[in-house]
Amino acid sequence: MQVNTRKVAYAIVLAALGVVLGFVSIPTGLAKLNPGQAMINVLSAVLLGPWYAVGIAFVISLIRNAMGWGTLLAFPGSMIGALLAGLAWQWTRNLILTAAGEVIGTGILGAVVGAAIVAPMLMARPTALTALIIPFLLSSLAGAAIAVVVLFALRQAGYATALTGETASERP
Amino acid sequence: MNDVGIVADGLGYRYPGASQWALSDVSVTIAPGEYVLLAGWSGSGKSTLLRTFNGLAPHFYGGEMVGRLSIGDWDVAMTPTSRLVERVGAVFQNPAAQLFSSSVAREIAFGPASLGLSVSVIEERVRWAAEVTGVMPWLERPPHALSGGQQQRVAVASALAMRPAILVLDEPFAHLDADGIDDLCAVLREIHGTGTTIVIAEHHMGRLVADATRMLVMQHGALVADGPPRDVLAGAAVNGLNLPPLVRLAREQGWNSIPLTVDEAVPLARSSGIALSGLKPCLSVMTSNGHGSASVVLAEDVFHNLDGWPALKGLSLTVGAGERVAVLGRNGSGKTTFLKHLNGLLKPDRGRVVVLGQDTRRARVSELARRVGLGFQDPTKQLFRPTVRREVETGPRALGALDVAWLDQLYEWMGLVPLLERSPYRLSEGERRRVALAAALAARPAIAALDEPALGQDGRYRQSLVELLDSLVSAGDAVVLVTHDLDLASAADRWVALADGRAVAEGAPDTVMRNTQAMADAGLRPTDLFELVRRLEAAETADGAARTMGGA
Amino acid sequence: MLSTRSDGLRPETRLALAVGAGALVLGTGLPVALAVEAAAVAVVIVALRLFRAWLQQLRLLLPMLALLALITWLTIDPAEAGVAVARLVLLSAVFLVLFQTTAPEDLGDGLTRLGLPRHLAFILTSAIQFVPVLQHAASDVVDAQRSRGIRLEGDLASVRNYPALLVPLIVHAFKLADDLAEALESRGYSRAARTPLGNRKFSVLDYFGLAGAAGLVVLAFFV
Ligand SMILES: Nc1ncnc2c1ncn2[C@@H]1O[C@H](COP(=O)(O)OP(=O)(O)OP(=O)(O)O)[C@@H](O)[C@H]1O
Ligand SMILES: Nc1ncnc2c1ncn2[C@@H]1O[C@H](COP(=O)(O)OP(=O)(O)OP(=O)(O)O)[C@@H](O)[C@H]1O
Ligand SMILES: [Mg+2]
Ligand SMILES: [Mg+2]
Fold first, then answer.
1. What percent of chain B has pLDDT over 70?
2. pTM of the model
3. I want to staple B297 with a disulfide (CB 3.0 to 4.6 A). Which of A71, A77, A172, B319 is the partner?
């Protein structure tokens, strides 16, 4: 099998960055938002494509869980978000739509799936955890918005031609 | 002795999308077992040449390669890197990026495992490489928990364990203290002794000029000099490089041979009849600027724990207005930790730090940042604006201290004028470091505190840095300089040697260097110029004694 | 030397045991059974000297636990809230034991043999090593920006300045990735025949372990 060493290296570093950014939270008064994971989803979707993005989301969730910094609920949420963002980028090459993919994937689908699959394991009746949709949605909105701002800043700074179209594999 | 030579014939290479050739028409034959020092200005193509040896350029980077390059009987153009690694081991500049395993043993084993060797052979290789490089005691530790110097050795061990016939190293000395450099040099001598070919690119040539059997100089992608180090260093091709001070002295004085060590320099200096008084000014700045004047920094018995590690243990230190103070010491001795106390990023656990009359514990970072400019060890970590100009202006704007005339002057000093409208990310490493340095000084602080400002720079820029520091102090500002490079530190008025979070000596550079106990404690080596002066003095005294005796 | 910390059971066996124990915890409905399981987990944690690591985990888990308790309390009842919290705490503790006693690389090896793509396992184990590296880089960036007067104190007002933190951090991460790719390539990452390290044969102990894991899953249906 032909591996793309550069993609593997980017995946490693983006996953580690995702774990680290998990510590950055925005206190809003109501709840703390963790936009880091959403941002990494958008970033890896754009740089590496949908499958790597899903893998990275899986790795981040696993590490966060392993180290006690995350919950099992993060798995479905982040992985679905990464997949949708990756597909949106692959199909449209549009940053805003990619960010929207992340918000829909993590904030809505992820939360619903999380509530539907994970919650019943923890408690007798699943219904209530649909309330999770709120923090998930807020976090992924904030994260996706920050990702867009940062990606534009990166592009403007002339860094990473990858962000203007091609993915890391095709990068010079 | 291995039998794998390197033959380049009209080798050219250009990165994808680049219009300039990073390498052009390089023809050189390196015999098995040579020890080659590769020198050249920043951006001259040293790293690129090393990358062609194991095929990273062109196979990994893409781009275009012309001419021929072969490693033994393998043509690089036709051989993938995954095959070339059997013959060429590589160590790159940033050790942290090369270590990715959970233990040092696993790290060293990764290469041999790639080669598909059996587990028992791998274990044997790991043990051998760990022994040669002295990393045995840390085999079970995770690499990222080691210090920079220790990591660098693990990176060397990891390359060695693949038993390459050729080992290439790209600036392995950056960030190492004197012990680290000496140890690494000893390792290289030892593996060179076993017949391994070594090719090393370094700005900090120091002892390498004595160890290497051959020196190559690059300029704009081409080889402009080739020969034994002594001959090459006498030629014009090395102009503008960061030359070892003895070499610079010999060239300035027009000695008929270039000394590579102090031992060699003594007879040359004596026969050339250079006066001791002529040497001393380049040894230390005698005019002790501002010492004794009002102190702008006063650190008293400062203690500080970083994540439970006692980084400062009772450090006391003062800096006067208009004074240049160099803070020196081993890796991990607390230099950076101290600098971060100057603008309140860190506050003392015990003791106090007073900056311009203000106790840092009672001041906010944003207040102190206005008056203390901090230049960081890896300054490229702060760049985020689309142009150099906006990058440099960010700080002063945030602090409400934009002074356009000062900035223009700063751009001039830093050689940034032609780069102002370019993206900081599109610059060479050396240029980016200069942008960050300008950003640190942009708010026209009264105290400039700089961590390794000359790292990775060639000789031309070092000169203008020294001039900049001079003009800062003559305007009454104070400079705190942190560095491992004592030749650069010789531009300071006063040295403070740290060991283990405490000051063990302070005074004029030559006073500190005469204090052998403190120098040993702080892991410092006297500069070659200082050694030379001392040997000349001793010889002069002996001569004097002999004359008196003869006269009697 | 090469098998690092994980002596005894193979990583697959450990993983199976953790999954089995996790299934048991999630399948347990009786509060009494939960208490017994909690006692068992506590014994394991104390025996393996993981108490401090567990406390640390608990502290970080606290907000999530509170949210879970609150929602369950409001929508179901206090007893169910207690059960849900207990399950989450126990589940986390079980996996804490797994990760604290198994070197990440061994776990990656194990997962690879169970079908996880080799490169994903490698990404997992290496990413763990780069967490502290990037943590360090992040704090360097914060220090550098604060030193020139950019507010990054972690409050809402600082959000505006997030690009000043994130852009340099991401660029630094990209550089790190480029350097890492170069290093991986230079050490033969893309070669086909890699010798697997730290591989142990299945021992009698492993069969007992696997049987135990199966037993735990079966038990989950009864409690
Ligand atoms: N990855 C890259 N992509 C495109 N151009 C590059 C790349 N790396 C280096 N270059 C360019 O190739 C030329 C040679 O660079 P190289 O890094 O080989 O110089 P160097 O001699 O190692 O410099 P330094 O002493 O600063 O490390 C420079 O003009 C540089 O801008
Ligand atoms: N044995 C050790 N254990 C833990 N931390 C250590 C150890 N040695 C050094 N350190 C680290 O040393 C640092 C404190 O030293 P500081 O960074 O101020 O060193 P420095 O003098 O600037 O070194 P360098 O020359 O490498 O830049 C901390 O980052 C601390 O984590
Ligand atoms: Mg270079
Ligand atoms: Mg330092």
1. 96
2. 0.88
3. B319
